[in-house]
Amino acid sequence: MEATAKATYVRITPRKVQIVLDLIRNQPVEKAQAILKYTPKSACEPLLKLLNSAIANATNNHDMDATRLFVAEAMLGSGPTLKRMRARAKGSSTRINKKTSHITLVLREAE
Q: N or C: which end of the chain has fewer CB within 10 A?
């Protein structure tokens, strides 16, 4: 039995999110929450919300015990890139790429 939660179009680059996802993968839920709460990275705030949503899905929808849950899978995909322009010298411009992420967390009960 597993519970999932997805966050799509999160306005953080996948490269920054991957660093934090590697920290919480295969960790118990309590430890993962502590890691996300005290790690000074910008990706921790949306990941903590996503983890809490996955815990709520597990307890309410699948009747799983919250104390025995662990982060079984933490998948990351890149979403669409927002293309913006910045003015440069002599009337020219350069492109700014604002990247987005799709994040999926899967929780399972430990045996």
A: C
> Helix 44-61 vs helix 29-38: angle between axes, to the nearest 10 degrees?
160
d(CA 33, CA 107): 13
- DSSP labels, 40-70: --TTHHHHHHHHHHHHHHHHHHS---GGGEE
pTM given for the model: 0.90
Kind plus residue range of the DSSP H or E element containing 36? helix 29-38
Residues 6+ apart with CB under 8 A from 57: 3, 4, 5, 107
Which position has the token pair 């799509």? Answer: 8
Domains in the chain, CATH or no CATH each? 2-109 (3.90.470.10)
